[in-house]
Design a protein that fits this description.
about 375 residues, alpha/beta, Rossmann fold, 2 domains, 8-stranded mixed beta sheet, 7-stranded mixed beta sheet, about 35% helix
């Protein structure tokens, strides 16, 4: 199979979908890997490393899409990339379709097959999302702490406090991979951390393992009760493949102290606050109701080399399987892969995405059986 690695073109996205060593392994297995010139530079992987691994360098994205049947990306395709997709393509990337009806319908119109890293589920885990959730979670406490500085518009709170001065208060909504990593870093700084969660067993686990953090059952009343005392909110809620629930209203934010900071990790799925809207690394923040919002939609892209390596560790097995066997055979040998299919031959197959956009969905298993 010919596998294509285009350069990411989303604003301030520096990750690359396939690193040279992974490309080399695919080549040794008999596949052809075509890489757009400069695709790895943002992650400090120069073209020469891809050439040395046996990959072919192509001058632009048009050539990559024209040659490859399997397109591997990091972020959702941008409009000019969608224009290059057709029925001959299988796209494997982060899609986050529940956040955009336009993107969903455009991919359907292209006739392509699109698999999403973030919806592949195994034993209630999301193994291709977890590495980026871990990075975004750890980042959230770092960037939240930074933006609490007065010169960044924050309240002027040092999260760890000092002797004789109480530490800042952090509320993490969601106790999954992103939330637990956010809490770990915030607690490590010395902040007073509360994690809100709905899974009782998860709270027991967090209570035992997260020294320096407290747990609280997540309800609208408990969130509202915490807000007036919180310096930093981290939104780390996730419903796989679906739009994030709006747990924080504009009215709730009005109860907070001016200059408090809100980091919305869930922004890729539409955000968990009524006031959230996507931002970029170049212009990451805005104020709503006197609360500083940080809503960068590709947070791990800031630490591109670390994020790229972590992503490749998780995706390489699945890329190899698709290249070796094709989609239908791969789904038969590894049925969990079906959960990654969001669009199959131009038909929407993700039920949560269909619900988010009021679009009909098809059964991917039935379609694969008919192929």
């Amino acid at each position: 199979m010919t596998i294509g690695v285009p350069k990411e073109i989303k604003v301030q996205e520096h990750r690359v979908s396939v690193i040279p060593s992974a490309a080399g392994e695919l080549v040794r297995r008999g596949h052809r890997v075509v890489v757009e010139t400069g695709a790895g530079e943002g992650s400090s992987y120069p073209d020469a490393l891809y050439e040395a691994a046996g990959a072919e360098l192509l001058p632009d994205a048009g050539a990559v899409f024209g040659e490859a049947a399997l397109i591997i990306k990091v972020k959702e395709p941008q409009p000019e990339e969608i224009a290059r997709l057709g029925p001959q393509h299988t796209l494997f990337t982060y899609l986050h379709l529940a956040a955009s009806k336009t993107l969903t319908e455009s991919l359907m119109t292209s006739g392509c097959t699109a698999l999403a890293y973030e919806t592949l589920e195994i034993n209630r885990r999301l193994p291709l999302l977890e590495p980026m959730s871990e990075i975004a979670g750890r980042m959230s406490s770092i960037v939240g702490s930074y933006h609490l500085a007065r010169h960044r518009g924050g309240r002027g709170i040092l999260l760890g406090g000092v002797p004789g001065v109480a530490p800042g208060r952090v509320m993490v909504i969601g106790g999954g991979s992103a939330g637990i990593n956010a809490a770990r870093v915030a607690a490590g700084i010395g902040a007073d951390v509360t994690i809100l969660e709905v899974d009782i067993e998860r709270m027991r686990f967090l209570d035992i393992t997260m020294e320096g953090a407290h747990t609280l059952y997540s309800t609208e009343a408990n969130i509202a009760d915490q807000l007036p005392r919180v310096d930093l909110i981290i939104g780390a809620v996730l419903v796989p493949g679906a739009a994030a629930p709006k747990l924080i209203t504009r009215e709730m934010l009005r109860q907070m102290q001016p200059g408090a900071v809100f980091v919305d990790i869930a922004i890729d799925q539409g955000g968990c606050a009524e006031t959230s809207r996507p931002t970029t690394h170049d212009d990451p923040t805005f104020f709503e109701e006197n609360i500083l919002h940080y809503c960068v939609a590709n947070m791990p892209g800031a630490y591109a080399r670390t994020a790229t390596q972590a992503l490749n560790n998780a995706t390489h097995k699945w890329i190899t399987m698709l290249a070796e066997n094709g989609l239908a055979a791969s789904c038969k040998s590894q049925p969990e892969l079906i959960s990654a299919i969001n669009i199959l031959n131009g038909k929407l197959t993700s039920v949560p995405v269909g619900a988010a956009h009021d679009l009909p969905t098809a059964d991917p298993l039935a379609m694969l059986d008919n192929d």
